Amino acid sequence: MNAIIKDIDQHYLYPSTLYAEQERCSITTVLGSCISVCLYDTKLKIGGMNHYMLPLWNGEGLATPRYGNIAMEKLLEKIFSMRSYRKNIIAKVFGGANQSFGSIDIGGRNAQFALDFLEQEKIPVIAQSIGGHIGRKIIFDTYNSDVFMKYLSSDKS
């Protein structure tokens, strides 16, 4: 998977963070119930990605990109700071697996928040792989918006 885009800068995105720069790079992350939204400006050929763990900040503690509402706002701010216009932005959404098999589907809530936010902001979602019970590894090329995705094995043997 890495050989496809090996000649460009690499950035690993940890949970509760985001990354967007004007220089081309590939951004890699691993997702379970978390969500990553890849935003891409089709005119400027720039992009960025976030990785959040919970859908909404409740107003207590720090307002960090651990929460979807904060992570989405900060990623949009970063893209706009690079002279991007909303009309040129597209989105791809990944993650949101329900790995706990319990009644609280954090992954589903995370995914729904991302889709609702993007709809409210009038940013089209052109690709998505959300839900299920298996985690994903994704690599996002910020120059052309390509995302390479691989499901993680649930086999523990």
Give a written overview of the molecule.
- The longest helix is centred in the C-terminal third of the chain and has 15 residues, at 106-120.
- The chain has 2 helices and 9 strands.
- The model has no long low-confidence stretch (mean pLDDT 93).
- A 5-stranded mixed sheet has the order 2-5-4-6-7.
- The two termini are 23 Å apart.
- It has one domain (2-151): 2-Layer Sandwich (60s Ribosomal Protein L30, Chain: A), CATH 3.30.1330.
- It is an alpha+beta fold and 157 residues long.
Number of strands: 9
CATH fold title:
60s Ribosomal Protein L30, Chain: A
Main β-sheet description = 5 strands, mixed
Helix count from the secondary structure assignment: 2
The overall number of domains is 1
- Rg calculated over all Cα atoms: 15 Å
Helix content: 10-25%
- Residue-averaged pLDDT: 93
CATH architectural grouping: 2-Layer Sandwich
Could you name the CATH class? Alpha Beta
State the low-pLDDT regions, or none: none
Kindly name the structural category: alpha+beta
**SSE sequence, one letter per element:** EEEEEHEHEEE
Strand order, largest beta sheet:
2-5-4-6-7
Beta-strand proportion: 25-35%
Distance between the termini: 23 Å
Q: Identify the overall geometry.
A: globular
Multimerization status = single chain
